[in-house]
Input
Amino acid sequence: MRDHLFCTACRREFPIDSAFPRCDGCNEPLEVSISRAKPSIKTDAPRLLERFLDFMPLASLHAGISLGEGDTPLVKSSAAARETGIDRLFFKNEALNPTWSFKDRGTIACIEHALNLGYERIGTVSTGNMAASVAAYGARAGLQTYILVGSNLPEEKIAPIAIYSPRLILVDGDYGDLYFRSLEIGKQRGVYFMNSDVPFRVEGSKTIAFEICEQMGFEVPDNLVVPVSSGGNFRGIIKGFEEFLEAGLIDGLPRFIAAQADGCSPIADAFENNREAVERIVKPNTIAKAIANPYPPSGNQVLRKLRQHGGIAMTVSDAEIESAQELLARDGIFGQPAAAAPLAAVRKLVSQGTISGTQSVACVVSGAGVKSMSHLAAKEYQGTRIAIEKLQDVFR
Ligand SMILES: *Cc1c(COP(=O)(O)O)cnc(C)c1O
Ligand SMILES: [Zn+2]
Output
């Protein structure tokens, strides 16, 4: 069978050479289906997508597009391992990507697809990491790049996007509508909108799962914890494990755990109440801005996957996130609040007895702490003040 897209809800099929990411019947997200006889990892390939090309809906890759995305370390915890009593606790540190979040994995997969289809214009809707990622890779590929943001975006967030010289559009009006509206306009006007959960972005996120399997010697962790907003990354990670299982590279799946913030938890709410569809959150309120999507476009598909695999969706408070951010830092890793939510979730699951110390756990640290400093500035991390003449006293 040839590579194609299919609807995650009604299973209708669509051609792979479409940039429109949703089913025109039920408006649920589409997903890539690929079938290869005997896919394998090209272990000596230097670039991410080359290494996993057998698992990608791409025949070949373009030169001069990669920025060295992926291949991030899986760090075995010391401090957090001691504190939680989980000896085999790991952090997949996605802060080490070219624009400091996992978004680069999906962005490069989308850019390869867009170039294959002959697009000269790309775009995204985002306020943070995805905007920076698409702007950076768009610049590198020499594509006209449109970044749509809400007009109330704080100034400090503009420069890290604008530095790459995209067409930055500040849109007045309902930011929640922008996701769907941009897709419609993209279809009419020939702009490839690589939003949060489009099929090729999900394909890029699979590589997080692939790398974790490799780094753990093809033993899967008992628990895999991911901070979830739109649901695109979580879908990709689950799909990656499923494909390695299917290829015979691993012999089981982890328990998949979605971590959301108390102040914006449409997926965890629906999960706990046994609903099949997410409901829009009216006023998101959390320091973890990267997981504050009030109406996740892949929310329903995440719910379907959690039920299929016996996964969990849960919430953590801002206080728990801040505390986890500090604990993560004691392991030497500075993640942004969203990236610390998985560790906060692990602490909670340990105290509830859902995770025991004999199990292994991998947390996805999704993006870098330097990208989100405002809640820390308010906090006063103080040093000790001393006159230079007395400096030796410090070391008594
Ligand atoms: C985008 C992002 C998330 C959420 O990922 P989704 O695919 O939208 O669920 C989590 N953490 C960070 C740092 C992000 O940039
Ligand atoms: Zn459908």
In short: The mean pLDDT is 95.
